[in-house]
Every structure is written in structure tokens, then in C-alpha cells.
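Exercise 3.2. Students should predict the tertiary structure of the chain below and write it as C-alpha cells, then compare their answer with the key that follows.

Predict this chain's 3D structure.
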Amino acid sequence: MTFIHPPVWPTENEMPQHPQAIARRRLILTAAALLPATLSAIGSAAVRQLTPPQSRGPFYPDRLPLDQDNDLTRLSPTDQSAAGEITELTGRVVDQHGSPLQDTLVEIWQCDANGRYIHSGDRGGSPRDPGFQGYGRFRTGANGGYRFRTIKPVPYPGRAPHIHVAVTRPNGQRLVTQLYVEGAPDNARDLLRRSLSASQRAAVTVPFEPDAGSETFSAHFDIVLA
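Answer key:
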């Protein structure tokens, strides 16, 4: 009896290859190998929306309070508590690629729960809250982070609720902007906020969210510098 053995097919490496097919295969394999590195480079090259500058306003304190720490809700030496909805405001100061900016001075100032600034030119009808510091400062650490304890901003005549923010880098570069409350009814009528583009408004408008099981609020605002 004669046995017929099945044919032995050559492997891919043993088969004759057309030079163009070989080159095309090598190109595909090379591209596949480089894809992760390419995607990583694209991600690292992505830039963030710059925080837009806005007016400093007329009520930057003309006489800074003796108490200038990052807790605006208790004013030394009386240690009296501020009226309003207590808010933990946190964030980071970074460049357009997300790298933290250390040793950057962050200042905030805002009106109190009665709509009054700590400025001699503010002659509003309501009395000034004696427990509200009105101004605070914080210098960022290695991660670019900052933290303030303040109150949720309230409307001011002709303005939506807002917090003034100034950021000064060690080289003297300075940005002044304003932070708005997401969902505030007066946002659409605020002329300064309306002067910004949609992406700029989104960059300076954040939710002030109530903390679970507490009467305090939290807000997170990242500041992006060129």
C-alpha cells in the first residue's frame, strides 16, 4: 500500500516575498510599535484653556487688613465668625501643559454677605460685616495648590456673584481675573462675564457644591497661566 503524505507548506519566512510587500509589512509593524509613544506625545502636547484676565474692579482693598491669611471667615483679633455660606475654595496654579507653578502668590477679595467691600470708596447702605476679612492670600507649594476658607459670593449691585482673584508669579508676571458661580441667575446679565467667549466663561465659572452632611460649600478653581 502506498501512503500519500499531505503536502508540507512553506512558512511565511520561507515563501518568496515581493520587495514591495516586505516594505509595506515593515512599515505597518514600525507604525504599530511607535503608536503608544505617538499618542503619549499628543497627550503631553495638549494645552489648557488660559484663564482669561478681567478687571481688578474699583474695590481692591485700599488698606489691607492686618489679618491677611487664607481664612476670610474669622477676623483676628476678635475671632468673630463671618456671616454667609462658608466655602472651601481650592485649586491649582498651572501652566498650559498642566505643570504646577510653585511659590505663586494667590490673592482673593470679595464683598461680604451684606454686599460690602473693605474699601473706603464702598459706601453701600448696609453695614459692613465685622467678622469678614474681605481679603486673603496664599502662596502655592510644590504641587501648585492653594486653599481659602471664605463665603459663597453674593450678588453685588449690577454684578453677578463673583470673587476677585490675582495671581503673581515669582518673576512678577501677574494675572487678575474673576471667579463666577455656576448656575447663578445673574450670570447672563453680568456685562463683564458676557464680554468673555464661551470657552473663557467656562474657564472662570465653577460649581459651588454643598458638602454632604454639612452647611458648608466646596468649589475648585484651577488657574492656568501662559
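Discussion points: The chain has two domains: 16-46, 74-225. The chain has a mean pLDDT of 86.
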